[in-house]
Amino acid sequence: MNSTKLNRVVIIICILMMTVSFGCQNRKDTDYKQRTDDEVYGIINDKWESQFGEKANYKTSDSTDEEVIKFEPGTGPLRLADALAVATAQNRQYQTEKETMYNTVLDLTLVRHEFKPNLFAGGGFGYSDEEDDSMVGGRFGVGLSQLLADGTRITTDVGLAWADVLTGNARSGFGSIFSAVVTKPLLRGSSRKFVLESLTQAEHNALYQIRTFNRFRKEFAVSTITGYYRVLEQQEKEKNAEDNYLRLNKVFEQISQRAEVGKFPQHELDQARQDVLQAKDNFIREQKLSKQILDDFKLFLAIDPGVEIDLDAGELAGLVEAGLDGPKFSEEQAIETAIEQRLDLANSSDAVIDAQRKVELALDSIRAELNLVAGTEQSSKKIGGTGKNSVGVGVELDLPIDRKEEKAAYRRALLTLNQYERDHAEAVDNVTAQVRKAYRDLKEAAEIYEVQLANKKLAAHRFDNTTVLLQYGRASTRDILDSQEDYFKAQDEATTALVDHTIAMLNFYRDAGVLDVKADGGWQITEKN
Predict the structure, then answer these.
(1) What is the dihedral of CA 68, 72, 77, 83, to 10 degrees?
(2) Quick one: residue 128, left, alpha or beta (phi over 0 = left, psi -120 to 50 = alpha)?
(3) Fewer C-beta within 10 Å: the chain N or C terminus?
(4) Which residues neighbour 426 within 8 Å (Cβ) at sequence distance 6 or greater?
């Protein structure tokens, strides 16, 4: 090869490499991410139904258009609404559920892509040296591929080829090439339902996962509220333990003064001292437990356990002021509503329909296969020779002689359908049982709270009366100590009963399928008409 030819080859290769490099680096990585996000979230928005609740808190934490809420310490008590907002923004399981939904919908975009006109382009450049012929050449082509709903697959390709002979007798020049292939099934796999099965199932899977995510959101809201009130409950118990310790200390001082003048024997003074020590021990334990439960809640919120936060005790006081607020519909109405509105039941019901469709598809796959194939290739000039023009039409036949595997798949599809039907029936039974239990738990919690509220009032009255009797020497040390212990227990039990009722009510609304999650992570109830 002479130096002129060699320089030409080197220059062409350099230009080609620079072009490819520029084309690969021209688009920013964020462009690819944003375009993908727009497509995925567009599908989610289209499939988001009104009964799913407000459309919020469903985008991944790295989305450019998703507001990320971070907890800032030192900004005052963490209110319940703020805790819900922080939890949906930071909780690790919540983020995983969002990403699972995103990935499922992302899979749908890939299946949809197969049924769209897909352009492709590319080429090559190189040098060859065979016997007496030495040449440099290249080819660049663009094409289109598409799968139609009736099973027809079309592939076309238009290209340009070029060769420059360096030495030898081959012919230099340019040539254009056009090729097209069409394949259409006529028997097995020709039905629209069969061809679109992958797309249909991907569409359903996306909807199922969106439902699953929204069912999770309801459960997550209840879990967050439960965790918040359990912390407040424990902190209230800690205050009660401290109050009990201080009260017993005061009682001990009174008895000690009267024991000095002989109005109380020494063994009663020792009883009071022992109760004071036990109260202090209990207070220390409650303090420790309060810190542990608060740390657990911080972990749930994905807040560093070392960060000091305070919850709003006014939330618990608000429950006391609001009193009991039961559901406005009966147990039977709740069961009916749950069966109609529970998103997990909708998924199990639709899974039966999917299984029925797969039985039909499995039966179709046993049939004979007959495909019509047509193709053409046209070239203006064959490099190193003459042009080429060809057209071909033919059929491909596969008779249903050996369909052992397909018949086995059909039998499996029938068994799978039976399984999904049983699973759905079991799911309905489980939901019915859940709602019945939640309704009973709510009624029990309401009754227990009423009892404990009366018990607390009575215990306070009894302690006050015993204190007065003690001053006049008409009550023993044991009387005052027992009355204080009963009052202390009544305080704790009333607080627990109140929180239990609130949680039981939320669990009932969740299981009945009427709890909706709001944009701020909070909740509201959709009452049945």
Answers:
(1) 30
(2) beta
(3) C
(4) none
Q: How far apart are CA 110 and CA 104, in angstroms?
A: 10
Domain boundary assignment for the chain: 1-40, 116-195+368-402, 209-355+416-525
- Give the three-state DSSP class for 152: coil
Condensed to tens digits (0 to 9), the pLDDT of residues 145-183 reads 888 888 888 888 876 666 666 565 655 566 667 788 888
Q: How confident is the model at residue 527, as a pLDDT?
A: 61
* Residue found under tokens 């796959």: 365
Lowest mean pLDDT among 68-72, 294-298, 350-354: 68-72
Phi, psi values for residue 147, rounded to 5°: -105, 120
**Checking DSSP bridges between strand 133-147 and strand 153-167, what pairing results, if any?**
antiparallel
pLDDT confidence bin for 267, thresholds 50/70/90: confident
Helix (H, G, I), strand (E, B) or coil at 222: helix
Which token pair is 352?
């039966």
Burial class (CB in 10 A: 0-12, 13-18, 19+), 517: buried
Beta pairing class for 369-379 and 523-525 = unpaired
Side chain identity at residue 341, one-letter code: Q
CB 427 within 8 A of CB 348: yes
Alpha-carbon gap, residue 258 to 252, rounded angstroms: 10
423 within 8 A of 351, measured Cβ to Cβ: yes
Burial 293-303 (b: 16+ CB within 10 A, else e): bbeebbebbbb
CA-based nearest residue to 165, from 8, 378, 381, 377: 8
Q: How many CA atoms lie within 13 A of 223 on its CB side?
A: 15
Per the CB < 8 A criterion, the answer to whether 527 and 329 are in contact is yes
Q: How many CB atoms lie within 10 A of CB 156?
A: 15
d(CA 512, CA 444) in angstroms, rounded, equals 17
| 430: nearest Cα among 338, 528, 331 | 338
- The pLDDT assigned to 114 comes to 86
Q: Measure the N-to-C terminal CA separation of the chain; round to a whole number of Å.
A: 90
Q: Global pTM? A: 0.84
Q: Give me the half-sphere count of Cα atoms (radius 13 Å) on the Cβ side of residue 306.
A: 0
CA distance 400 to 406: 10
